[in-house]
C-alpha cells in the first residue's frame, strides 16, 4: 500500500523511471511495457495521470495507482510471455488490459471483462488511442461486458488472471476453474484492507495461495451493488 510522491512528474517515462528508482519496478520488461502504454490515455480528463495514487473513474470504480500496476505486472510476468492467454477482470479504463496485450503479443490472447458497459465503451476508446491499438484491430485483444466473477469461459483456460477488485472472502470458483494448470491468478481478497493473493495452479489442478502485500481495492461485486456503493 506504499504511495510514492510523483504528482509533479509530467511524462510517462519519468513516472516509470521514478518507480524504478524507488525499487518498485525491478523488471526490464515491465518498464518497457509501462513506458509504451501511456497512462495519460487511461485516466479521466483533468486528473494528474502520473500521480501514484488510485483515481476515481466514475461508477464507484477506480484505476489503481501506478505502483500497483507495476507490482501486478511483475507478479504475472512469467505468465504473460508471447503467445500466452490472459484475463483482466474488472478491466475498468483498459490500462492493464493493454499492458497484458503488449506482453503476450499478437500470437497471444487478452480478454478484459467489465460489468459497467459505459466503462467498456470508454476503455475501447482508450485502447485504440494507445500502442495496443493494432492488437485490438487484429482481434487478439478484446473487452466485454460481463460479470467478472464468472470470468470469460469462451477464451479459457488462461495462463494469467488478474482481478482488479477485492473478493470479500471466497475466490470465485469460476476463475479458479478457468485458470490453466501452471497458470497464476493475482486477486485481492478480504473486506476493508485486503491481502493481494497470488494463486498458482499446479499441473494436477491443486492450488497454492500466498499473500504478496496488503492492499485496498474496491469490492468485487454485482453491477447494481457497485453502482449503489454496497457489497453483494
From TrEMBL:
What InterPro entries does the annotation carry? PCMT, SAM-dependent_MTases_sf
A GO term for molecular function: protein-L-isoaspartate (D-aspartate) O-methyltransferase activity
Q: What is its EC number?
A: 2.1.1.77
A matching Pfam family:
PCMT
Per the record's keyword annotation, is Methyltransferase included, yes or no? yes
Which keywords does UniProt give here? Answer: Methyltransferase, S-adenosyl-L-methionine, Transferase
Catalyzed reactions per annotation: [protein]-L-isoaspartate + S-adenosyl-L-methionine = [protein]-L-isoaspartate alpha-methyl ester + S-adenosyl-L-homocysteine
Where in the sequence is the signal peptide annotated? none
Domain of life here? Eukaryota
Biological process (GO), any one: methylation
Listed under GO cellular component are: cytoplasm
Please give the SUPFAM superfamilies that the UniProt record associates with this protein.
S-adenosyl-L-methionine-dependent methyltransferases
Is Methyltransferase included in the keywords of this UniProt record?
A: yes
Q: Which family does it belong to?
A: Belongs to the methyltransferase superfamily. L-isoaspartyl/D-aspartyl protein methyltransferase family.
**NCBIfam families tied to this protein:** pimt
Q: What is this protein identified as?
A: Protein-L-isoaspartate O-methyltransferase
Organism for this UniProt entry: Erythroxylum novogranatense
Amino acid at each position: 500500500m506504499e504511495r510514492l510522491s510523483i504528482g509533479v512528474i509530467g511524462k510517462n517515462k519519468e513516472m516509470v523511471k521514478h518507480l524504478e528508482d524507488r525499487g518498485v519496478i525491478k523488471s526490464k520488461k515491465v518498464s518497457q511495457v509501462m513506458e509504451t502504454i501511456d497512462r495519460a490515455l487511461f485516466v479521466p480528463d483533468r486528473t494528474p495521470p502520473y500521480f501514484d495514487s488510485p483515481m476515481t473513474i466514475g461508477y464507484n470504480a477506480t484505476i489503481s495507482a501506478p505502483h500497483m500496476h507495476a507490482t501486478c505486472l511483475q507478479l504475472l510476468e512469467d505468465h504473460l510471455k508471447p503467445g500466452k492467454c490472459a484475463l483482466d477482470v474488472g478491466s475498468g479504463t483498459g490500462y492493464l488490459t493493454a499492458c497484458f496485450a503488449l506482453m503476450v503479443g499478437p500470437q497471444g490472447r487478452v480478454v478484459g471483462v467489465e460489468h459497467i458497459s459505459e466503462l467498456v465503451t470508454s476503455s475501447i476508446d482508450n485502447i485504440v488511442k494507445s500502442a495496443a491499438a493494432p492488437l485490438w484491430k487484429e482481434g487478439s485483444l478484446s473487452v466485454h461486458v460481463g460479470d467478472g466473477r464468472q470470468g470469460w469461459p469462451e477464451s479459457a483456460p488462461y495462463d494469467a488472471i488478474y482481478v482488479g477488485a477485492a473478493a470479500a472472502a471466497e475466490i470465485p470458483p469460476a476463475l479458479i476453474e478457468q485458470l490453466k494448470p501452471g497458470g497464476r491468478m493475482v486477486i485481492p481478497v478480504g473486506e476493508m484492507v485486503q491481502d493481494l493473493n497470488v494463486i498458482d495452479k499446479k499441473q494436477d489442478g491443486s492450488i497454492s495461495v500466498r499473500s504478496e502485500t496488503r492492499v485496498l481495492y474496491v469490492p468485487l461485486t454485482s453491477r447494481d451493488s457497485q453502482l449503489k456503493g454496497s457489497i453483494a
